[in-house]
Amino acid sequence: MSVCLVVEKANASFDTVLIANRGEIAVRIQKACHSLGLKTVMICSEADRSAKYGEAAEHFLCVGPSAAAKSYLNQDAILLAARLTGAGAIHPGYGFLSEKSSFAEAIDGAGLVFVGPPASAIATMGDKIAAKRAMISAGVPCVPGPDTALPDDRELVERTAREIGYPVIIKASGGGGGRGMRVVSGPEQLHEAIALTREEARQAFGSAELYMEKFLQHPRHIEIQVVCDNHGNAVWLGHRDCSMQRRHQKVVEEAPAPGIAADTIGPVGQACVEACRQIGYRGVGTFEFLYEDGRFYFIEMNTRLQVEHPVTEMTSGVDIVKEQIGVAQGRPLAFRQAEIVCNGHSIECRINAEDPDSFLPSAGTINDLSFLEGPGVRVDTHIHAGYRVSPYYDSLIAKLIVHAESRPAAIARMRDALAATRIGGISTNLPFLRALLDDEEFGRGETDIHYLEHWLKQRRPA
Ligand code: ADP
């Protein structure tokens, strides 16, 4: 593993950024670019040709058909768009190509700046075994289990499971998106579970490499946001709780994570920034942890901007996207760790175009739209009245974010904001979000990652 700090782009200068993404995050990045005095090149697929953010860009180019594989995932077309428009940098947003090390390499190879970490850091963190090994050597607490691939030797595998203690979880080293994992509650299921997960991993991720770790039964999902520059500065910006998940998809996120003492999380945050220094990390990133019985266990690092970054912006006062672009320009961070003080409480609700009961995606034209406006309320979105929600992409259409002096005050503000939100013409998950924000357990906080699924089952017994 490389331990050197990457400095070769320390003076990268560019005045135009191509945003290789769509939807709300394309708008968010465009705003950050404009506030830094940078021009933007926006791309689109055929389905997104009428996106309004195209009007505010220097150039708006269609890079391919509606299917993402032929447009937003088409590296050659995106690089060609950058070349044609004279963009000096490419921001990948989240999803799509944001965690493809080959994309970062190709951008570098074309003499452009990738607004993200070095390709080597993306590759290391994309390999979960390599990531775990790197974290252990940096002193970041990990889930019990070896930082090596599962061997073929059946006896050795059985011994490893016994040593960890059942239940264990078998995970694909190249896995992602909540796929390529299988829980094993006893030795009788072990070999079949390994065979099935191996085959799945081979087909879905092109690598049959697996590893095993302890399966934690009631963890919360807590994550730490970091930002690092090319000048040796690495800072963590507090923590978030993203335990409200349905099918491993986050629904509601908040900062800070409720009920975690500063002296419990502090050493973990410090270990994260130390790990960043050791791997030569640059830009923004998130360390994801499971948290159970007062202990943190690293599960993965996301080497990109995250959907839920606004809750950290609201509490820390740091514009994460502006800092990310500044780092890509070679600027040092505008703050030091001691200056980061998180204030109040922030909550984000993901508003999806989907049926609130079946969660099936809902496409169509939005004919009526309004959000609450006022202090402590932020809406990150690309939609407008007349916008056509296409069936091709993720169903996220807006993020509703609130900030207030305390968690109860933030919940109250979010309830007001949800009550006032009107999105007509399509189905959305607003009724579901309103009910969840009214839930007493959510109000108490500290619910685990299974809570939402149980809550949904109770509301609608099969
Ligand atoms: P992915 O990259 O596919 O998102 P992660 O490693 O982040 O995979 O895990 C996704 C989810 O799977 C976690 O948020 C958690 O709900 C569950 N999970 C993963 N590892 C464990 C574990 N060791 N114990 C319990 N749950 C786990």
Cα(first) to Cα(last) distance is: 50 Å
| Unreliably modeled segments | 1-10
Whole-number average pLDDT? 95
Tally of helical segments: 14
Largest sheet, spatial ordering of strands: 13-12-9-10-11-14-19-17
Largest sheet: 8 strands, antiparallel
Q: What is the strand content? A: 15-25%
Q: From the alpha carbons, calculate the radius of gyration and give it in angstroms.
A: 22 Å
Instruction: Report the helical percentage.
Output: 25-40%
- The secondary-structure class comes to alpha+beta
Ligand list: adenosine-5'-diphosphate
Shape, please? globular
What is the number of E strands?
A: 20
Question: Strands, helices and their partners?
Answer:
Elements: E1 16-19, H1 23-35, E2 39-45, E3 59-64, H2 75-85, E4 89-91, H3 101-109, E5 113-114, H4 119-126, H5 128-137, H6 154-164, E6 168-172, E7 181-184, H7 190-205, E8 210-214, E9 220-228, E10 234-246, E11 249-255, H8 262-279, E12 283-292, E13 295-302, H9 309-316, H10 320-328, E14 345-352, E15 364-365, E16 368-370, E17 377-381, E18 388-389, E19 396-404, H11 407-420, E20 422-424, H12 430-438, H13 440-444, H14 451-459
Parallel strand pairs: 1-2, 1-4, 2-3, 4-5
Antiparallel strand pairs: 6-7, 6-8, 9-10, 9-12, 10-11, 11-14, 12-13, 14-19, 15-18, 16-20, 17-19
Short description:
The chain has 462 residues and is of the alpha+beta class. It has 14 helices and 20 strands.
